[in-house]
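Workshop exercise sheet. Pairs work together: one partner reads the sequence aloud, the other fills in the structure field after running the prediction. Swap roles for the next sheet.
Pair: D.N. / O.F.
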Amino acid sequence: MNAASVAATAPLRTGWLVDRRHDLLSTVGGLAASLVLLGLHLGVGVSGLVLWWAWVLALDGPHIFATLSRTYLDRRERAARRWLLLGSLGWFAAGPLAFSVSVLLGRRLPFDLFLAFTNVWAYWHVVRQHYGVMTLYQRKSKDTLPVDRRVDSLTLYVGLLAPFVAFALTHPVARRLLGLSPQPGPEALVAQICWAATAAVVALFAARQLQRWRAGLGIHTPKVLLLAAALGLSVLLFLPEVTRRMEVLMVAVVVTAFHNVQYHGIVWFYHRNRYHGPSVDPSAFGLAPRISGRFLVYVACGVTFTLLYRALGCGFGVHPGCGTFDTKLMLGAGLSLRDLASGFIWGFALHHYYLDQKIWRVSRDAGLHRDLKLSAV
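Structure field:
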């Protein structure tokens, strides 16, 4: 047997991304945030409006700030990614541009397509982060067998996307947003196929873990916990028995809360290593080290940023529970000033989605590989 085949069949090293405590609290344990919010809504009866604002202020807005803290506020990142950081700001024009096309054509369709696009990308962004964290675990534990990479990817993508598709095709509000009739027709069969596919990939993944255990290859516990948490939440949230009892506003809250906590955990670990590690000169990075020096300062900056940009949206009646002073200020194609403002506010999220998929490419960034300590096992 040659050295390559020995390496390919050697038992993996079970590596946490940071350490057991950190990962169980954030990278995997972010699931608890979603379950608490869902429980407060369905079990205690807290309104979706209250929980939406709590989520926005405590988790979602600050997680957008987390991206800004490691890009625009990092002097070295600004120099290295100048054109990316400047060009990505163009996403703030996407909504107003779609709005303008609708007004010029006298039809809502372009703007409605823009809104559909934003919601689909929002969910895809969460899926891709779970995939990214899964690959980080694979790297950390030297989990390199091609069969496991394929099974893991298939399990994650089908397990997160199939229940979402089933929800989109059968839930009354989702169907209305997609321009479908109130009652599902053939789509009901497609939804059943989606649930069957979800069950199939879970069975496949479980069978592969059993096969690994019998072969003495070991079980990669952190990765298995991550997939169990992500898929478990997806199945629970999109079950018709659950979605029919909850306000549709809560879907975004429950889906994204896990993602938010997970993201904060990764960014905080990155900050500690990049700006505050041994032999690091914080003055070389600008404002980023000052913001991330203390957790309370980091939290305060994130919440302040959220209050400022959400206050802008609230002033135009964009967000739930805010005034709708502009309902009579119609600008054409059945669209109002509120819709125009909504398109602009979506720019904060779209900018985050786009920038995020560019700055976390570990395989192409040796510095990121170092700052996430992926070589340490």
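Discussion prompt: The mean pLDDT is 89. What would you look at next?
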